[in-house]
Amino acid sequence: MPANKRRALLLLLLILLLPLGGCFDLPSLNPLCDKTTAIADTAMVGLWQADDGSDIIAIRLKGNVYQIAYIEKDLEVEVFTGLLTEIGGVKVMDLQREKSWLAEHHFMRVEVRGDRLTLSYMDSEWLRESIRKGGKPAHVVYEGGKKMLLTASTEEMREALSQLAKDGRTFDSETHGFIRVKS
User: Fold this and answer.
1) Structural domain tally of the chain?
2) Is residue 30 in a domain?
């Protein structure tokens, strides 16, 4: 099958399956970085418990690739691979579910201060409205409810986010806080 047909088929499958996506409502077809350009921050490594005591995150680092296990209070476990990058002075984690046949990327702002980890989804109404109006960083937008698919290239995504990252409205205002349990 020619490459353009494979890409069109993948895009169609992603659009059809977006409603099954879980927590992340603003996935990207392309990454923000790759293993050669990712950065490592050892301060993120460890075992973290949610502020409300419910969920736990275990983070390991091999080279500059993060292995992340998210353990929910009902003991359901999701495993992710993550690459960390810095855009516009903001650290952003590019996450992919490890056991997913879909190659979608999800972006979160990451802040570590001492024994406190704060995560924010790159997913806000303001960002969605910016995309609807200006088309960046998405070329193709699917809206089934509030789902969208970012299809800009890595370079286009980084360029758009370098302008948007410092704006507090780019990331969800609801942050998820965690306290370090073990290094």
Assistant:
1) 1
2) yes
